[in-house]
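Morning - 3-methyl-2-oxobutanoic acid inputs below, output right after.
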Amino acid sequence: MNDPKGEIRRISVSDIQARKGGVPLACLTAYSKPMAQWLDPHMDLLLVGDSLAMVIYGMETTRGVTLDAMINHGAAVMRGSERACVVVDLPHGTYEDSPQQAYASARRVLDETGVQAVKLEGGVEMAETIRHLTDQGIAVLGHIGLLPQKAENRGGFKIQGRDDEGWKRVMADGQAVTEAGAFAIVIEGTVEALAREITETVAVPTIGIGASPGCDGQILVTDDALGLFSDFTPTFVKRYAELGEDINRAAEAYAADVRARSFPGLEHCFGVPKDKK
Ligand code: KIV
């Protein structure tokens, strides 16, 4: 976003909130400085998601990542971006015990990275915590529907809202998170009509992943969208590139060059007379 002098200005949480019902928000995850640099010119919001536990560190769930790790990745993404709104996930075990615990964790994330907001998973049961954070001036991105941090306790990675009870629960979650002051809400893994109804009901933007084209924005895990993470590809992912295959080809070509002594060439070496290069 440009300010009146034409200088680049970072998109704020208020800018995101003001996009309710407008041009859809384009959001992706980012975990590193170089990836943030590539994505920043195009994205409204970059999420330093705890999905990095699985995508970067090869853990089986998102629950193993620490607050320190999230802070390191958040700081890296801030170094690589100047335009997008950046949000860091509060990882499992750092916010659920009490609003005070959540405040201490969120405070560290904001102070040590400079990002604009934190995201935390949960609806009605986290409303008091979200209210506590927002009352203290900490911007919160809500996350309802399928909750990866809690999936183990809820019978796995299941699409939410297939039955009446589940539908009502996620609707109530959307309302509670909005009333508690979240500036926007990620809706993950719900039946399409439920995400659409929540979007029509709540006053803040909804950002869908495996949700609905009717949401106010969309988010994907970048490594899924770019073909870098190939352990599995969920149905809701569209692959925009096959970078994993490019890496494979590049590594094969490099190994062949090294083994054939065709890399390095003299042009890659120091102190070689110009006529030999
Ligand atoms: O951790 C993450 O990447 C997320 C997105 C899937 C929304 O929470």
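Note: The pocket of 3-methyl-2-oxobutanoic acid is lined by residues 29, 47, 49-51, 89, 186, 188, 209, 219, 221 (CB under 6 Å).

O.
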